[in-house]
Fold each of these.
Amino acid sequence: MASLITCPHCGTRPKEEFSVRGAVIARPSASEKDEAWHRYVYVRDNPKGRYQEYWHHAAGCRRWLVVNRDNLTHEVFGVTDAQASREGSR
Ligand SMILES: [Zn+2]
């Protein structure tokens, strides 16, 4: 069975059109200490289960998306545009 992702711009597409680019984590401010930047760049919690990742629709609209999924079962709970997601959290 093909794994499908529903892009908010392009509709339901095969996952091969996307690049998974890592967990959604808060970016430190420019004035944060080196330790905060080290953690942001290199340290990951690597949780098992449901969490959010950045996906890039490389073979489609080329937008950055936030995919909320279970990394154990690959069940997808929701896909939003990353910019809209960021603006919604402000
Ligand atoms: Zn798309």
Amino acid sequence: MFDLIIRRARLVDEQLVDIAIQDGKIAAVGQVSGQAKDERLLDGTVYLSAGWIDSHVHCYPKSPIYHDEADNIGVATGVTTVVDAGSTGAADVDDLWQLTRKAQTQVYALLNIARTGIVTQNELADLKQIDKSAVRAALQRLPGFIIGIKARISSSVVGENGIRPLQLAKEIQQENGGLPLMVHIGNNPPNLDEIAEQLSAGDIITHCYNGKPNRILTPEGELRQAVKKALQRGVRLDVGHGSASFSFEVARRAIAQGILPDTISSDIYCRNRIDGPVKSLAHVMSKFFSIGMTLSQIIDCVTWKAAEGLRLTHKGRLEPGFDADLTLFTLSNEARPLLDSEGETLEGQTHFTPLAAVVAGQWTVTDEGKAKNVFDL
Ligand SMILES: [Zn+2]
């Protein structure tokens, strides 16, 4: 007897399947016979994918600048897992852990290499903020919650320190087992070429389609040589849309040249969620239909590719043994304006509507899901 069977779910390849869940894990996918304590029969139009993972969010409720509640950006919008990208450092990450334990959404953290995280906007302007032994102690206190480190390497953050904080981040990474490193890029200095040269396989560049001078493209619209080499070494690209870091023009040109993101993430927090231009991970994902990506490419970027980049080895795939994290959604076709972070608007035709998030077998139906009444609850 399974705990739950969802029947007639539509996968992104348009196959209709049943999914059985047992003890918080996926037990079977395909034509499932047998019984369950709970069964949900879908009407064949609702899509189901592995649970969406947002690789870059801000959900430390006490952050003075970038705060939000995990469930507002998580299960309420179909996202089953969020990764707080450096809101906290060694001094306050325990508080982030504590405050997110009651959330339905699964929360992980990338630890800011600066002790106090993003309490100010220039957390790496004082190198004394980078305390290697405090980072190591935090990693030992919260293994399984802190899954990597974050360094914001742009002029307003590093002040006069140039590339030095990134060199220290690489040392911290190597001294702690080579865990994932996410590097934020923004205004220069330091120059993106210099940043890219420091990065190695598995390192993640976030804000990869930003429209600032430190963009990945040259003024002629070609991929910078240093970024090209970094990608050849296995450096990963993360979208990290945010209030100021996503340009349709850059993304469209890059994607047309085959420079696709590894992960699509939102960089969401309460302000850009409520006022835009981010709104939700689903809204950010919808933008990629308009600039040259397919449904399965987009879903890959928030499921197995996100899990791979962050080494969440038990997530991201609809296969027996993986965590029973699922997102149910529909696609709607209608003309709606979409806005990037640079003030450019384009008309979107296809949009994601998340209906429910299932986390370790537990359901949260979104407001749209309730309105559509597609689950025989
Ligand atoms: Zn961010």
Amino acid sequence: MNFSHDTELSLRCAAALVNTNRVGGEQLGDQRLLGAFLNEWVWTGRRDGDDAELAAVWDLRDRLGGIWALAGDETAAVAAVNELLADTGARPWLTRHPELPEWHLHLSADDDPLAQRIGAEVGMALADVIRDGELRRLKICAAPDCDAVLVDLSRNRSRRFCDTGNCGNRQHVAAYRERQAHQHRDL
Ligand SMILES: [Zn+2]
Ligand SMILES: [Zn+2]
């Protein structure tokens, strides 16, 4: 696997977006929180800062979560990604700017609505994943009480837990306690 840097960034951003209401409650509850998210993920271009924009991002979040859930079904995932690309009117062009000085693709115009631009970029990144036969890298956290998503960019696709909920550590501790309990019973 060798995704380009902008594909990886888009995939990680998509997972982070989906997880904004899957770990610790709603993290994108208002425009200020959305602004912070956009700054963290270095989204340039148009920002309206109104309720319609926020609602559109929430819709996109649900839609992307739905695509993660389809990762085991290639045919369905392809249909969903094609639909996303069509709905967002993705049209690639090369650009670079101070926030990301390497040449990379933007998939929509800077003055297109925010959710449309995010959707187009993520749609294209997902198309890369599918072209590379790597859909299984889109995962749901393996912790039983967590439905956060992750994109497993590890060499051997070995990641099982999300970044967000400290789930890897929690499962490790749970497994340790389980072993301890068994040892005590065995004595
Ligand atoms: Zn850019
Ligand atoms: Zn998790």
